[in-house]
Amino acid sequence: MSTAITESIRANSKSTPRRWDEWKRGIPIYLMILPGFLYFIVFKYIPMGGIIIAFQNYDPFEGFLQSQWIGFDNFIRLFKDPDFWGIFRNTLVISALNLFFFFPVPIILSLLLNEVRIRWYKKWAQTLLYVPHFLSWVVIVSMTVLLFSSQDGGINILLSTWGYERVELMTDPSYFRMLYLFQVVWKEAGWSAIIFLAALASVDPTLYEAARVDGASRWRQIWHINLPALRATIIILFILRLGHVMDSGFEHILLLQNSLNIDISEVFDTYVFRVGINQGEFSYTTAVGLFKGLVGLVLVYLANKASRKIGEEGVY
């Protein structure tokens, strides 16, 4: 018995230096993870404590602990608000545009870029597609205003000079969603394609060789090799995007918004800014934000469960 104990002590004493050496080898990786870890702790998890004010009549002078507790009154007020269903509809429509029109574009773009065989052309095309991502929405919307302003926009001046009618792109509500979608695609499609290109780069080249030997065309190779290789990535990103279905892009929509198109451009993000920041309704707009988060959570849970049922890994 004493011999077994002695051997276990020796084994533990030998494994301790080994674990220390392994930990030291991992220090560079831990340092790389640290900024992201701190970001989520400081800006995502710690602020979650502020959710409590959704159930209070929050007064900044009294603080979290002394403010009056009102339960679910803020949520009742939200659902009884005559503007609620209009804002809810606008948010869902814009999210649907992102899901069903923008989301497939990076996939198609990555498949097209993957088929380009001229390396210098492929690099230049990728660079040109990535550049818009680094422009702010302020710059993009300002460019649009300069080109399509009703009175002094460059495009409208040309149309007027050539005898055509002016295009009221910034003031006609019927153009708002089309303009929003076009700008999102132009700015983010190239950048969003990076992750799909990375997934395609991991495909075994021998699969293409075997397909060519069997007489498969380029289209058949895309259909039977590339798309199956992207399937897991597509499902995971789609599930994650469902979690943001109530987030429509605050800055972008706020810059495009004006008094003429506010009926179809007002979404939860801009509503929270207008009511919460401008009018000081902190408790009420916190309840709005909590409602948005709960909708996203339910959608992610259901989508993940559905992906598990069809045999995919899902997010968790």
UniProtKB/TrEMBL annotation:
Location in or out of the cell: Cell membrane
Keywords: Cell membrane, Membrane, Transmembrane, Transmembrane helix, Transport
Sequence intervals crossing the membrane: 29-55, 92-113, 134-159, 179-201, 222-240, 282-303
Membrane topology summary: Multi-pass membrane protein
PROSITE patterns, A to Z: ABC_TM1
Family according to the record: Belongs to the binding-protein-dependent transport system permease family.
Primary location recorded for the protein, binned into one broad class: membrane
Classification via PANTHER family: BLL4140 PROTEIN
ABC transmembrane type-1 domain segment(s): 88-303
Keyword tRNA-binding listed: no
Gene3D superfamilies per UniProt: MetI-like
Stretches of the chain forming a coiled coil according to its record: none
Pfam families: BPD_transp_1
Protein name: ABC transporter permease subunit
Record-linked SUPFAM superfamilies: MetI-like (SSF161098)
Keyword hit for Repeat: no
Organism: Paenibacillus plantarum
Domain of life per record: Bacteria
